[in-house]
Structures are given as C-alpha cells and as structure tokens.
Amino acid sequence: MTASSDRSHNPIVIDDELCIRCPLCDIVCPGDIIIRGERTKIDPPVVAYPAECWYCGLCEQSCPTSAITIVFPDRMIDPPLTFADLVDGR
Amino acid sequence: MIGEQLHTLETDVLVVGGGVAGCIAALAAREQGASVLVCDKGGRLAWSGSVGGGVDQFLAVLETEEEWDQPAYLMASVSQLTDGLVDLEVVERMVYELPRVFRRIEATGVRFRDKGADSYMRHRAFGLPGAYHVDFDGKKFKQTIARAVRRSGADDLTRCSVVDLFQVDGELAGALAMNIRSGDLYAIRAKACVLATGDVNRISRNVSDMPFATWHCPYNTGDAQAMALSLGGVLANMEFIEATLGPTGFSSQGTNALTGLGAHYLNRQGERFMFKYDPLGERARRSVLVDAVISETLEGNGPIYLDVRHLPAHELANIERTLEVDRHTVPGFLRQKGVVLAEEPIEISISEFSIRRSGVYFRGSGVVIDASGQIGIDGVYAAGDCCTVSAGIAGASSLGWIAGASAASYAKRRTSGAELPAARFASGRAALEELFDERRTTSYWEFEDAIRETVTRDVGFRRSEEGLARAREQIAALREMETELRAHDAHEASRIVEAVNIRAMAEAMAVAAQTRRETRGSSHYRVDYPAVDDAWNQVLGLRRGESGLERLVGPAEGPWKAMWGSSPVETDDVAGQGR
Ligand SMILES: Cc1cc2nc3c(=O)[nH]c(=O)nc-3n(C[C@H](O)[C@H](O)[C@H](O)COP(=O)(O)OP(=O)(O)OC[C@H]3O[C@@H](n4cnc5c(N)ncnc54)[C@H](O)[C@@H]3O)c2cc1C
Ligand code: SF4
Ligand code: SF4
What we know:
The complex is a heterodimer.
Chain A lengths: L11 E3 L9 H5 L5 E2 L10 E2 L10 H5 L5 E3 L3 H4 L5 H6 L2
Antiparallel strand pairs in A: 1-4, 2-3
Chain B lengths: L5 E11 L3 H12 L4 E5 L14 E5 L11 H11 L6 H20 L13 E3 L9 E6 L2 H11 L3 E4 L1 E9 L2 E9 L5 E11 L27 H9 L3 E2 L8 E3 L7 H7 L2 E3 L7 H4 L8 H16 L2 E4 L5 H5 L1 H8 L3 H8 L8 E5 L15 E2 L6 E4 L2 E3 L9 H22 L8 H13 L9 H15 L6 H17 L8 H26 L22 E8 L2 E8 L15 H6 L3
Parallel strand pairs in B: 1-2, 1-9, 2-6, 9-17
Antiparallel strand pairs in B: 3-5, 4-5, 7-8, 8-9, 10-15, 10-18, 11-14, 12-13, 13-14, 16-17, 18-19
Helix pairs in contact in B: 1-4, 1-12, 2-3, 3-12, 6-10, 14-15, 14-16, 15-16
C-alpha cells in the first residue's frame, strides 16, 4: 500500500461526549477533510479523508468545546525514510 | 456525482483562489466599483489557504523618517538579494505600492501593533537591508481580511474549485467551477479574472511519506499555473525548488522561530557546523541553512540536531508558544514524540520541496506577469505565490491589490462580456463526468505517488542529465494514465483535477531543470554542471507549443514579459551563449 492511500490512521480524534455538532471543524478545514454528520445537529462529524489531512490544527483550535485532539501517525513520529533515502531514490 | 445542478453566474471580475492575494484583489476591484466573485476550495474564505491558521510577520515599507524605510532604499538591494534573477520592473511596482496597501489592510481591522502601542514591532530578517518586518499577532489575519471582502459587497463561492477558463476571440469569457463536495457545477461569465491559487505542493516526498502533511498548503496544486499554460501564458523559474527544515517527521515551519532566537545546529559529531558554510552561522538566510543541512546530511554527518538548551530561562519557558505561532500543531507533535526541547537537542530534517520561489523574497515561480499584474492575455491577471514575484503575504497583498484594480478597470472598459463558448464548456463538463466511468481503474493517489517518486528521485535536490531525461519520459508516460483516473465522488474528482495539474507542473519542472545546465544554489543543483554559468544569467520561461512545452529566455533582471511574444529557443543555443 502506498502512503497516501493509507487510511488506517485517524488524525482527528473527536470526543463524542464533548462534541456539540456545531460543526465548525467542517467549516474551517481548508481541505474538505472533516464532514459534518448527515443530520448535522445529531450525528458527529466524520473524518472522511484522513490521509489528506494537512495537520494544520485549525479544527482543533476552532472547536468550541475542545473535543478534538490531533494524533500523529507512527510514520511521522518515527519516519520510515531518511533524507538520504529520498535523494538516492530509495 | 457531478453536475446534477448547473448554476449560472455573472460577474465583472472573477477571482480564482481566495487566499491572501485573492482577498486583497477582491477589495481593490470592489473599490473600483466592479462586481466581484471570489471562488475558493476552502469551506470559508476566513480560514482557507496557506494562512487560515494565522501569520506572524508582514514585510512592510512604511515611509517613516528612517532612511531604510523608503521604497527606493529597499529597491537598491533587490538585485543583490535575488542574485540578479528578478523582474525589477514588477518588484518596483509592488514595493512602491506596499505602504498604501499596508495601510489599506490595517483599515480592514488587522492589528499590526499591540493594543495601546503607538509604534510597530519591527525586526530585520531574511538578509533585508532594514527592519522591514512587522511582527504582529496575526492569528486572525485571514479572518479579518475575509470579513472585509464580505463587507465590500463581493460575492464568494466557497468549497468550489475553478477547473477551466474560457476565452472567445482572444478575450476572457469565463470559467467552469465545481463544488468539491456536492459536485454542483457553475458556469461563470466574467469580463476579467485574477488568478491567485498559490504555490505548487504535493509534488515531492518527505521522510514520513505523507504527501499531504507538508510545510506549505497541500491544497495549492498549481491550478492557476496550469490554466495559464492552457490559455497561452508563460511560466518562469519552474526549475527552482524550495524546502525547509523542521522536526524530523513533520514538515513544518516551527523551528525557524527557534533559529531566530539563537538556537544552534549540531551534526552527528556534536559539531556546530553552520560556520563552515556562512560567517553568520545559524543566522544566515534560510536558504543557506537549508543548503548547509543538505550538504552535511549527504556528506554523512547526519542526523542534524537543533539545540536550544543554552537559551535564557524565560525564552525556554515560552518555547511552546514560540513554536505554536508558526504552526499550531508543532508542540503537540513534540509532546507525542516525547521530546522536551529545553532538555535535549531535537533532530531536524529537510522537508519535501515545492515550487514557489527559491528561498528568496522578490522572485516567484509561476505565471509571468507585467507591472499591472496582467499575464499577457487580455483580461487575465495573476498575483501571489502563483506568479513570478513573491514576497510572502506582503507580496501577495501588494500585487493582489494591483491585479485587482487592473482587472476592474479592464472589465469597465469592456462593454459586455462574451458568452461562454458552448462546445468548450460542454467538453469541460464532460471531462468531469467521465471521471466516474466504471471502466476507469486508477486512483489519484497511485497516480500522484508515481509523480512524486519520479520527481523526488530525478528532479529533486540533486539533478543530472540522465535523471532528468528519465524523469521526462516517465512524466510523459504518466500523462497517458490520466484517462484511467477514476472518481467515486466530487471530492475525488477535485483531487483528480489537482493531480493532473501537479503532473503538468512536474513536467514543466523537469523540462526547465534539464534546460538550465548550471547550478544555482540548492534550489537547482546539477551534479553534472555544478557551477554557476554566466551564460545562464537569464530567466527561463515555458509556453505550451504544438508539440509540448516551448522554452523561452529573457533578461535576468526583466522585464520578463519580453518572453510573452518571443520565439522558442533550443537548449544548445543557450548553453553556447557567452562562451
Ligand atoms: C503556515 C504558514 C505560515 C506563513 N506565515 C507567513 C508570515 O507570517 N508572513 C508571510 O509573509 N508569509 C507567510 N507565509 C507565506 C504566505 O502564506 C504566502 O506567501 C501567501 O499566503 C501567498 O498568498 P496566495 O494568495 O498566493 O496563496 P494562498 O494564501 O495560499 O491562497 C491560495 C488560495 O487559492 C485557493 N485555491 C487553490 N486552487 C484553487 C482553485 N483551482 N479554485 C479555487 N480556489 C483555489 C486555495 O484554497 C487558497 O485559499 C506562511 C505560509 C504558511 C503555509
Ligand atoms: S468543532 Fe468540535 S464541537 Fe463542533 S462539530 Fe466539530 S468536534 Fe464537534
Ligand atoms: S488538521 Fe487541518 S487539514 Fe486536518 S482536519 Fe483539521 S483543519 Fe482539516
């Protein structure tokens, strides 16, 4: 599997208890990553395109109830490649 | 699906991309009395684009009594700052307009000074000859200018991507736009337009192999540049790349602020190596820092670390806040990684690269404009990081203002706009609908990954004739794959449009990099031509010709618009000159 199709990691963890379905996270996201629930006021927002997140943090910053936590994937915390690999074309 | 709803709109000035340049262009055009429609991919103009999360500095010339604070004084350094590759005519217009534009932005409610303060906090940065940068709390910068756009009476069309522009008899007719969530289509008639879609990202890999977790905004994909090429415009400086240094694994600005505070760079041996590269050490220009880290790493002295332990206690106490200003999520990243900056050096690495400028202010990579912002095509203007003069939010604002005002007065001179060309519009629409054809089997991420792999290996930090020739072949072959790309919803369709533009930009980059047979810093490093070649004191342009991209050259210090009507050159013509 290629990195960009790896949808197994969810970067945007939403605390369902805290979320008031406002849905600011959907509105502020510059990349159309978070989408409000089908019934906006009832269903929680969905992280529809997790692999396309910029990790900009706008959703986390804007959430009125601090329901959002950004979690980085292992491949960012402990990267699989080095700069030299990229230059050598590995 | 696509196009279940088709809406028709009409405006004097269409602004393509509502980032910094687009918003300011809209204000200028409204001030001239033109009707304005701003189209942006983001959910709201208030948060879209590169700086929706905030900014912290604005390069300003304020014409105070300081000798250096005058446009002419700054202009005198521009040539040296850009190593003589810069369109002076356009930069001059941008710099002279800056004081007025700064005050105009301040009037929208942006607070460039702290409450109660009677002067601006200014500092000297990026090798500029004075303390031009205004430091300010720009968390709400984008929200404030977006609100001013609303108040001005401009309309906006958000979550919509402009996918095609149309001309009739050499004049702009309008555009096709798509809502990236609902798939609704918009037929927009416009008398003039301002292209302002920002830089080109998602074109290379980073060490995390996370194509969207980038330094710059991953949703800026060279759309204006690609549309300008199709209309017959010229792109320049496409061979130059820009990268930054960030905590290993997270391509982000963050650590730049630490360098400003006096952080040290160490190599694997614990040596403070920066003085080997520049007498200013860690205070050298950012591009010099990046060059040095690249060299150290490739010489086997990596990993490289950033050390702040010697900084004064009050700065260490505030370090999270300092980091957060540049990128909100950096402190959280370090926490998850378990790094405590005040206690240990942090490993840093080089980010992916993008096409924007080449580590310097005043030069841009993208659409060639003249001093009015026009791109050589009647009614079409450009501003911001998609054009050939770029200077952060200041450059985007000043040129945005110039382009917006020019577009409005052009629109006013046109009595009526043209009808959209029905056949061209229909084929643009059909092309989007075809993306849903079940017989198509390739995903946009496979396609994009293939572009990034080729570009990173062969059109990246180290380039050679052999690699570039291979890259051009592979990038050309990828074009054949475009008819296989499959979308399942409007969001995916919009990503495919972006991916196709990224491929076009990769092709431009490879052609330009192969043509420029010399080295210019790390933004264009040819291992087979490792020195600067004076014969190459020229700007390199690209235009779409009958059989692929045509290469054009123009005077290093402008005007680059001289390339608009010029005849294509062969590579060997250029290399032979001056020898
Ligand atoms: C995190 C960050 C911090 C920065 N901080 C500073 C700073 O403090 N000072 C400074 O001077 N510079 C800063 N910069 C650089 C600065 O942001 C850019 O130089 C500037 O934003 C360029 O303006 P622009 O309008 O060209 O691009 P952007 O502001 O990025 O706007 C481009 C817009 O076009 C939209 N778009 C793209 N394609 C399409 C399409 N096909 N259809 C419709 N819309 C489209 C995008 O959604 C986006 O909103 C920063 C950059 C980043 C990423
Ligand atoms: S912004 Fe916060 S509260 Fe509002 S919908 Fe999103 S997660 Fe829920
Ligand atoms: S971090 Fe940014 S890109 Fe990712 S979901 Fe939140 S707002 Fe969107």
